[in-house]
Amino acid sequence: MENINIKQSDGAASLAKVYAIANQKGGVGKTTTALTLGEALTREGKKVLVIDLDPHANASVHMSYFPETVTTSAHDLFFDDADFKSLWGKIVKKREWVGFDFVPASIRLSELEVDLKDRKNKGMVLSNSLDEVKEYYDYILIDCPPHVGVLLVNAIVAADIVLIPIQTDFLALYGIRLLFDTIKILNKVLPSPVKFRALPTMYDGRAGACRKILNLIRRKLGDKVFSTVIHMDTKFREACASGRIIFDVDPKTRGAQEYMQLAREIVRNENA
Ligand SMILES: Nc1ncnc2c1ncn2[C@@H]1O[C@H](COP(=O)(O)OP(=O)(O)O)[C@@H](O)[C@H]1O
Ligand SMILES: [Mg+2]
């Protein structure tokens, strides 16, 4: 496992936009979006950091960082607040087969609820530590755990935008209610309301139910829904099983093309 030194990107003047990829429902495409969008953005010439903040560590395992052997991880951010700068240098990793930098998770992230119980401003820890690395990246993507708690709150507080993958099936809308409740509570205490964008995932245009749900999502959330829709594509599972990103499995496959389209839509929105 190789640690890297954070280097300033050439001419980087602006600070990274932080996207928390969140949905309380599991299996909706959060981890897939974090890794695939991360790679797509690097293919658009952006400097990207992906952070695995889920104690299940699915993104880390996908990147061949196995929780039992990882010694420095996102967990450290919540404890070593003496020197964030040198800490980032230790926890940011680089795999040669992807363009983005990566911070792995640790199963110990699940203990934070108890460990931070009496910590003041415990929802601000990630936001404060990200301030140290924002100048080195264009985008920071956080893969969030599928439950409400101190990690999700830290991610939402740190985020410029909460990206909510919504699986286009009929149970999907139940999952996001809890997330919107969390956002509503945070909006009462944060200086400005949380911005969010929804990403329809696992869409199957042949299924009437899918089409209905997509229409419903667009009706309810309007321009908060990305134009890009991610279809079902079996290549995602193949990519996951082989520890690769879909672009290495088949760059022409629909899923790969659609995440490229999403990356362009995000960059376009930023410049609009
Ligand atoms: N668009 C898609 N089409 C088909 N399978 C997908 C798609 N997106 C994700 N998957 C697969 O679905 C499973 C769950 O996705 P994942 O990204 O891990 O969800 P989450 O992080 O929300 O739990 C994984 O096996 C993944 O490879
Ligand atoms: Mg996941």
TrEMBL record:
InterPro entries: AAA_dom, DNA_Partitioning_ATPase, P-loop_NTPase. Pfam families: AAA_31 (PF13614). It comes from the Bacteria. SUPFAM superfamilies: P-loop containing nucleoside triphosphate hydrolases (SSF52540). Residues 17-189 form the AAA domain. This is Cobyrinic acid ac-diamide synthase.
